[in-house]
Amino acid sequence: MGSPQNDIHHGLRSVSNASDERSNHTKENDTLDIGSQGEWSVSLKNSTAILQGSTAGTTAYILGVSHVSKESCGLIEELIEKVKPDAVMLELCHERTGLLIDEKAASTGRNAWFSDNVDIIGLDENFEFKEQLMKRLKTYHGCPVSTQGIQSDADILLATGLFESVTPITAPPAESGWDPMFVYVDNMKKIIPGVQLGAIQFKVVPRTLPHVDRIAHMTFEDAPPDVDTDALCEIINQTYMNTSNDTRTKTLDALIEVKNQVYGHTDARCDIMYQFDDASDGSMRVTARIVASKGLLFEHITSFEETVRKDGTGVGIKRRPNAPQFMGFQTATTSSVLTTITPWDGTNIDVDNAKSEEANSGILESLATMLTMTYGKYQADAGQRVGILPGEAWRVAFEAAAKAKTPYIFLGDRRASITGERMLKAIIASSLPLYLAGAAFSMASWLTPTLLLNVPSSMPITLATSFVSIAAASWPLISPILEIKAFSEMSAKEIENAVRVNEPLQSNTTSTFYLWGEDALIRWPGAEEPVIGERDEYMARSILGFLNNVPSDLTPTYVATSKESYGATIYSYAMPKDASNVVCPTGKGQGQFELGTKSPRTVVAIVGTAHVRGMINHFESGCITTTTTDTRRLEELSM
Description:
Oligomer: single chain
């Protein structure tokens, strides 16, 4: 049995087919031979549309899901596991990336931290080991690390034997907010959010050692045969005596100078390891082992690693109180680069776009938020009955994509604030005539008895007539709320049955497929076009933008940037290079990336069920192709 992307060619036509052939689409799809889809569950077949992109050999799988269904989450995992796509599209925007964070997991402290400002502070200007120490840390620029990892890095620094104490210091993120990155840990099969900090610093206090007149004892282990050990002993003794006699030089610095002399005199073939024995009177005895560099068990840096005991203590070392079990000296973790992100340089922030975002917020957005909050509350109540938290479908999709080693997870939806504003304007435009007509009818019901008949007994009838006219005008706005409320009060089994797709979404694209209760919002007057129609086109364009590598149609993306040696894949939030500044704001995320020759051949899109048929129509209309893409259209839909 071939892969889904190969067997798709048995039945689906290219979007470049003639328009007269497209008119038979519905009829042909009723008996479509979809190859390896025969192995799929009935629910997955019904809920998935399979379409060819306008670039040869490219395929999109559009899965319609409910936001309050465990069964939908299972379908997401099933589809991504079977297809193993090059990219996954989520019906999210950069304003809603917070939905990817599992609130339940976050409340238990299961998260990671990262920062663009990682440093060791408290060092002298001429400290020679800083660069080497920074490479030993698990915490480095842009890399997520756990709280335990930060503490472990403090132990790594302490284990060098150079410091009296090491204290981790973290600073909160900037007030402007942050964009989460995610870490997928292989053995956990979970994504862990990376919370951006303003800074992660390790404050060190240099180690102070008692004054020592001389190195008490020296031994040689596996020294190269051509090394004159007697001459080397003389060099060691003379160097230490000359250096330590200078009252401005500390014992630690004198021993470091000896190390440098040994290393240089033997052309880096030998190194020195110190050991300290402290007496009860506060004095200290220094012994030295001169060893072949290649014979060291670890790649030592400072030569003082063996002066730190297994419990993290030693002469002149203050172990951190309540510190976890001391880890000792560790070699650096390694990572393999998957996709390179070019960081923002701080000079190319899109000020105009920031202003437009600010201008778009205000009264309209606030009213739209108020109107949808009640709807969202009842939808969340329905999800709780089923056992689904807000954003569950997107988190499941992200984890399934990471498990399948998908390199790109892109956010294909328009900004929620824009959709809210457009929806509110449409509702006002559609509802205002009803309210004006109701108000006119109500006024007429008051004036007619008063001016013409002058009959006080008609007052109850007049009041009733006014109430009915206002209620009739308000009903189109109230009824969707009542519908979602009734939906939220159903049992978990009833909700799953209500949102299950029982007919193939690809079999009939002449009408939108609505789910009772969950899609009630669409029935608000004028809401369907901004909530469904425009976003159908937006998301279809974003999918084809990736399949055709059209920069103007690319959207914000989580990119698999590296694979760490401890079994974790890092997904960093970034903007596609040359994308629209309105769609992909400059300065957002960690930088820019290029698709280059890695343009995806297969995309799995996870969207609400009501979007699938509209997206099919945009794919098959032939208006979105490599050559005819309107480079301004996505911007128009975003403003």
